[in-house]
Amino acid sequence: MKISPDTVVTLSYDITNEAGEIIESSDISGPITFLAGRSGLIPGLDRRLVGMEQGTEATLEFPPEEAFGRVDDGPTKTLGRGEFPAGAKLDPGVDFEAGVGGGQTVRLRVVDASAETVTVRLVHPLAGQRISMSVRVEAVRVATAIEKSSGKIGAPPPPPKR
After folding, report:
1. What's the fold here for domain 7-68+128-150?
2. How many helices (H) and strands (E) does the chain have?
3. Domain 75-123: CATH architecture, name and number where available
4. Cα 79–80–86 angle (5° rounding)?
5. Strand partners, 44
6. Beta-ladder partners of 148
7. Are the beta carbons of 109 and 91 closer than 8 angstroms?
8. For residue 35, which of 67, 10, 13, 60 has the smallest C-alpha distance?
9. Looking at the chain, which residues constitute the CATH 2.40.10 domain(s)?
């Protein structure tokens, strides 16, 4: 069976950055299973998988626009100036790293600043970079009606009608 929209795909993969360093691998996290056309993974991935079948291996190259976006494409947020270290240089283009809980951090780039507020852009760590993804299609199957309607794999059936 070939991958087409709304088929269930199981994929093994390695994602590498421009320097060739592995940044994510199914060897560590396990293969991923998703509904083709609705994976929410790398934006350019789904359309490149169409037509592949179980056992297919490929290395796919993604420009920033099809991967994690350009630096200037990230969402913006306006914060109070007090959320930044006292005396911090808050000129447009200055980058900060902020903790978001669970040991995770996010990169913020100053877009604009006033006496009271600072507008920052949230920047994905891989924004602006080309990435490569080596994939192996482990399985392809027809999605169930429930999976198609919910967009989730192995979605539980809806509750009974009363």
Report:
1. Chitinase A; domain 3 (3.10.50)
2. 3, 9
3. Beta Barrel (2.40)
4. 115
5. none
6. none
7. no
8. 10
9. 75-123
Output the six-digit token pair for 48: 């490149």
Q: Give residue-wise pLDDT tens across range 105-151.
A: 788 999 999 999 999 999 988 889 999 999 999 999 999 998 988 88
Beta pairing, strands 7-16 & 32-35: antiparallel
Tell me which H or E stretch contains 148: helix 145-150
Q: Which two tokens stand for residue 10?
A: 């199981």
Residue among 35, 42, 40 nearest 16 (CA):
42
CATH code 3.10.50.40 region(s) in the chain? 7-68+128-150
In this structure, which amino acid lies at residue 108?
L
pTM: 0.76
**Structure token pair of residue 84:** 């930044």
Assess contact for 123 and 108: CB atoms under 8 A: yes
β-pairing, 95-101 vs 22-25, is unpaired
